[in-house]
Design goal:
This protein has a single domain, classed as Glutamine Phosphoribosylpyrophosphate, subunit 1, domain 1 (4-Layer Sandwich), CATH 3.60.20.10. 46% of the residues are buried. It is of the alpha+beta class. The protein has a seven-stranded antiparallel β-sheet. It contains seven helices and 15 strands.
């Protein structure tokens, strides 16, 4: 299990998103309030953004976020209108390694996942491999269920580039329903193509992990945020309903789509 978050809006420095809020991801690394199956998130972290030419970029570390001496200096000097981040609590069988540290990315998308798929290596990964083309499978570097989920999403987009990311998430979750059988799968995902943020709160054979969003937090004027846990205890943060996809667009109100 992990904690994740994303921001969309006017340019802000990374520290305003990742470090400064009272219950930021930085604080959630050692003091999460709604984490399932773990107590801390100390198995690495990463964040992603887009360069001015629209290319996804990431910074990842296998250190606990509080142990990275470079982060405060870096976070105070770079700004962006879109941020995505995750602090990691590694699941058994998914070792701490640079290749296993999110965000995952391709030439257009950034992706993070909070959750797990039970019996992933024995039961589900072989089924995923059957749907992956050599080109997509060849890009996989680690062994986590998260990276394989991203690979399956990428494959669905390769097969039909006209699909929206909401359609792709819905298709993948439908396939997983058959793949996992009676085993649990926790599927809180955030993915972005650089213009909008798509966040799912979903679980199969299990209650959904926590997920919240806000468009009115005074810490982010004009911005929208989605996160595993509220960054502040106020009425501006709302829970994403279970089994829904949240779509954040800088030019539109938030949209909630039932799965």
């Amino acid at each position: 299990m992990c904690r994740l978050a994303a921001y969309l809006g006017p340019d802000i420095p990374l520290k305003q998103f990742l470090l400064d809020p009272p219950h930021s991801l930085y604080r959630q690394s050692w003091e999460p309030m709604e984490l399932k199956y773990a107590k801390i998130n100390a198995d690495g972290y990463g964040f992603g953004w887009y360069s001015p030419d629209g290319i996804p970029s990431v910074y990842t570390s296998i250190l606990p976020i509080w142990s990275d001496a470079n982060l405060p200096h870096l976070a105070g000097t770079i700004s962006n209108p879109l941020w995505i981040a995750e602090i990691r609590s590694a699941t058994l069988g998914h070792p701490v390694h640079q290749y296993n540290t999110p965000p995952f990315f391709d030439d257009r998308h950034l992706f993070v996942h909070n959750g797990f798929i039970r019996d992933f290596h024995q039961q589900v990964r072989p089924l995923m491999n059957r749907m992956l083309s050599p080109g997509v499978a060849g890009d996989i570097q680690g062994n986590t269920d998260s990276e394989y989920l991203f690979a399956c999403l990428r494959q669905l987009l390769v097969d039909d580039p006209k699909l929206s990311l909401t359609d792709v998430l819905t298709d993948l979750f439908d396939r997983l329903q058959g793949w996992v059988g009676e085993q649990p799968a926790l599927l809180n995902i955030i993915i972005t193509e650089g213009e909008r943020i798509y966040a799912s709160r979903h679980g199969i054979n299990h209650e959904c992990p926590s997920l919240y969003y806000t468009t009115d937090d005074e810490l982010f004027p004009g911005g929208q945020v989605v996160a595993s846990e509220r960054f502040a205890e106020d009425s501006f943060w709302q829970p994403v309903p279970e089994h829904h996809i949240l779509v954040l667009d800088a030019n539109k109100p938030p949209e909630l789509l039932a799965l």
